Amino acid sequence: MIKTGISTASLFTKVPTENCFSVLGDMGVETTEVFLSTYSEYEKGFVDALGERLSGTLKVHSVHSLSSQFEGELFSPSNRVRDDAEQLFRKICYAGNVLGAKYYTFHGPLNLKKSSQTTDIGVYAERFSYLADTARTYGLFIAVENVHYCKFATPELFRNLLRACPSLCATVDVKHSLFAGYDPIKFIDAAEDRLVTVHVTDVTKDETTTLPGKGRYDFEKLFRELDKRDLEPAVIIEAYARDFVYLEELKDSYEYLKTLAAKS
Question: What are 203's strand-pairing partners?
Answer without folding.
Answer: 209
